[in-house]
Amino acid sequence: MQTTSAAQGAGSTELERFIEGMNGLLARELDEPVLLQQVANLLKGLVSRDDWLPEAFARPHPRFYQQYLLHADPLARFSVVSFVWGPGQETPVHDHGVWGAIGMLRGEELSQCWRQVPQGLVMDGPPRRLRTGQTMVLSVAAGDIHQVSNAFEDRVSISIHVYGADIGRQRRHVFDPGTGVAKEFVSGYADVAGWRA
Ligand code: FE2
User: What are 88-122's pLDDT values in tens digits?
Assistant: First the structure.
């Protein structure tokens, strides 16, 4: 089985250490709220310095936000992704179907939560701004529908995401915010030019 890992490909010891930490946490079979807290702590360490992400996994696209796979657990228990926002780029409204943790490596992003109501979808509170070095968590139990955007119109932002599944292969949903109609999608991963496992 091919295990895609930027840690192996680019010799990033910070990412290797993070993956080791994740394996240690998952071996403890913690309840999800405790696990999420621990994953966020680990992720906070990873994004506390910005000198380890290989350039190939930090490249923006002129039109689309990029989701580069940094590590896929061979048992699909978790995946680690770099999310690269070009200026002003944003996701559709979407869910995840699994737990997630986000750590801001470079720049800032905005996350607007949405909630399902009988009439469709409504915004759930004000957008949350995630600043460099900060983390946030997502859980299905707490409601995991949101829309994320680069907080900046004039520069790239990058966040590191950890999910409780191989997120690029996970069946989940995008929503029409006007009608609330959900459509199934599988996001896949962006191609990493010039890097081979
Ligand atoms: Fe998301």
Answer: 999 999 999 999 999 999 999 999 999 999 999 99
- Between the CA of 8 and the centroid of ligand 1 the distance, in Å, is 26
Q: Give the count of domains, the chain.
A: 1
Distance 146 CA to ligand 1 centre (A): 6
The whole domain housing 176 covers 11-185
Is 45 inside any structural domain?
A: yes
Strand ranges (E), 37-99: 66-72, 79-85, 93-94
CATH number of the structural domain spanning residue 83: 2.60.120.10
Tell me phi and psi for residue 10, to 5 degrees.
Answer: -120, 5
- Residue 6 in any domain: the answer is no
The reported pTM is: 0.91
Those residues whose C-beta lies under 8 Å from the C-beta of residue 36, and which sit 6 or more positions away, are: 99, 101, 137, 139
Q: Is residue 196 one of the residues assigned to a domain?
A: no
Spacing, Cα 115 to ligand 1 middle (Å): 14
Give distance in angstroms: CA of 161 to centre of ligand 1: 9
Please tell me the distance between residue 96's alpha carbon and the centre of ligand 1 in angstroms: 6
